[in-house]
Amino acid sequence: MGEKIQRSLTVAIMSPGAMGHAIGRIVLKRYNSGIRIITNLTGRSSRTRHLSESAGIIDVGSDTELVQQADIVLSIVTTWEAISVAKRISQTEHKNPNLLFVELNDLAPETVMSIAALFPTGRFVDGSILGGPPQDDGYSPSIYLSGEYAHELSFLKDSCNLDIRIIGTKIGDASGLKMCYAPMFKGFTAMAIDACITAKILGLTDVFLDEVKHSLPDMFEKICQWIPGVAPRANRWVGEMDEIIKTYDVAGVSTKMLEGAADTYKLIAESTTVGIDNNTDQTLDDIIQKLVDALKTLKGSN
Q: Do 178 and 244 meet the contact criterion of CB atoms below 8 Å apart?
């Protein structure tokens, strides 16, 4: 594919949500020659459709058409959708045996290896995205890749200035890195939420937050910034925590702390209005009070 990439390229993104559409938009803006970004929006939300159209991504209407037109498929969906998307694409792969499938979701190495087995041609790349969507100001998340064909994505760095980091040829390495990295943020955030809930129930919120602000000012700033932003992500994070737990269990490491973090995100996603509230103006106190109320409701129903 080397020379082909320099002349003309069609990249499919499944699906162009917050991360996917941003990557598509940046690639379309920065690539130095002809490139098309396509997708299949069948069954996707109106929000995803709007993001896709705003980025200039073309809806081809079906998986079959997508596979026939694409050189590369980037899978960027929720953890729960990852396997079904891979199965859908693999079922039509025979129509384009040169297709390269890139798995970029938050999955355990074991899950990724099972997905790779769906592609008999072996044209598969393991990947993980660390950070938020790329921005016009030059910011890029770290995109780690591993696998025999990972080098075919180097154009995303050379031509599009995305932070592509190839770490070897072994499927499972890039996804494993995300499973090690993600709990440092998601685990800390869950523990901070639990600490704030407990302080609220004990009537110690003001004293607790004053002490954190005094002795751990960086942590206080992160708590105030991160916790209100969890609400719209909590449902997705439950699935990601399950994959992290799977990884740690295989490694023989205790998963109890991770299971607690997963429970916290389930509380946000399933038991309160917080999990479906995309209002970014919610304060830390707004979120914590809703979670305290949810806990009281749960206790009352048990």
A: no
